[in-house]
Design goal:
6-stranded antiparallel sheet; Arc Repressor Mutant, subunit A; 257 residues; alpha+beta; Beta-Lactamase; 2 domains; elongated
């Protein structure tokens, strides 16, 4: 039997759109709306709406409230809201320090968070030098190839780190990416001792990044880094970067204490 892929895709998109419309309507309604009220407002047939509402209630995104059988947001929706609030709160705390480091060094700074076993760039402050490295918000990379990722790997317990390494293949981004397990473990051991991670052209060729992990203030681990072109990197700049990152980390730890 032939399947109309286009029709199937359109049906899926329609259901997804209706689901989002329901959640937005319930979230913004002054009182908990009933099934007939939702059906009338959103022009969704009651039969289709009933199935969507049942699924949302079963998944805890909605819950029945009140004698009228109205619907309100459930605990799963609240968890999403809490995660967004924590994420924005972390960004608000970190951004002044990214800007301060950027002004002090005139080098690109970034804030990264652990997302689904990858590192995601959440915020960045570019430098004004002619030769610079640009980080892209939303871009993801595997932790073993980045300075921010390595400092967060160093925070895992030995059992967690072993489980992570068993779950992935160390694939190179560049010719400098560390894909030897023993060498990576040696680097992580050194990071645990110093608190500072470095990546020498391992994610982007010709770019050196230095990072420290941030104090945990929520469910998502994060780290900040400074990235510089290899041609501008030297021991003096390394010391200056480490000093700035560690000072920011100490200040953030005081704020969250």
């Amino acid at each position: 039997m032939a399947v109309d892929v286009k029709s199937t895709d359109n049906s899926s998109v329609k259901s997804a759109t209706r689901t989002l419309d329901i959640l937005e309507f319930v979230a913004n309604a002054p009182t908990c709306p009933s099934l007939p009220e939702i059906s009338q407002e959103l022009a969704i047939p009651k039969s289709s709406l009933s199935l969507l509402l049942t699924t949302l209630v079963q998944r805890d995104y909605l819950r029945h409230i009140g004698p009228r059988g109205g619907f309100g947001l459930g605990p799963a929706s609240q968890r999403f809201a809490d995660q967004v609030s924590r994420a924005r709160g972390a960004v608000a705390r970190v951004m002044p320090f990214l800007r301060g480091i950027n002004r002090a060094l005139n080098e690109t700074t970034g804030y990264f968070e652990w997302r689904d076993d990858e590192m995601e760039c959440v915020e960045t402050q570019p430098c004004t030098q002619q030769l610079s490295y640009s980080m892209r918000i939303g871009e993801r990379s595997r932790p073993y190839a980045s300075a921010c990722g390595k400092v967060l790997l160093a925070q895992l317990s030995d059992a967690e780190l072993e489980a992570y390494l068993r779950s992935i293949e160390l694939i190179p981004y560049t010719g400098s990416t560390v894909v030897d397990r023993d060498r990576l473990l040696a680097e992580i051991a050194d990071i645990r001792r110093t608190g500072v991670g470095r990546a020498f052209g391992e994610y982007a060729a010709g770019v050196i990044a230095i990072a420290v992990a941030l104090p945990r203030s929520g469910a998502t681990p994060g780290a900040i880094n400074v990235a510089v072109p290899e041609s501008r990197y030297n021991a003096e700049l390394d010391r200056a970067i480490v000093a700035q990152l560690q000072a920011a980390c100490r200040a953030l730890r005081t704020e969250t204490a």
